[in-house]
Fold:
Amino acid sequence: MKNTSLTALGGIITALSVFIMFLAGIIPNMTYVIPELASILLIVTTQEADLKWSVFIYAAVSLLSIFIVADKEAVVMYVFLIGYYPILKDIYDRRLHPVLRFLAKFVTFSVTTILAYLVIIYILLIPIEGMGRFGKYTAWILLAIGNVAFFLYDWMLGKLVLLYRKNMQKHIRKIFRFEPRRNP
Structure:
């Protein structure tokens, strides 16, 4: 693959991802959905380039979102929780046994969810409404619900990778003149 083609593709994906993240400040109540939509675009580079290109794109979108996006909670969700996940999913799916893959995904999600909410509560000083409804179990209930939502996101991302390979990969490779990637 040519670096110019990868740079062009990376620029396009970065610009589209930042635009989608920008929408989080415009469209109300999409704090959790917008970062997921922005992260889906990384499917292309996880399938067509090596790991470093996807990481560079994730880092660029994260950095630009910090300065441009009005909804800082959505930015935290992208940076800590969702933005890098297509990269990590690709690594886990290629290299780990299914049982270890399942455990690694959910441990990663749970730890990063806790970190994200610590940043939201103690650094951004955004209050979490309704935390007292279930008493001392509220955080655990929210984490369990989040894990269910994460399972659905992971499943959907897997289906989107298959859809990309079946319907879009040949077009992207033709436009950017990519050769098929070797699996590590």
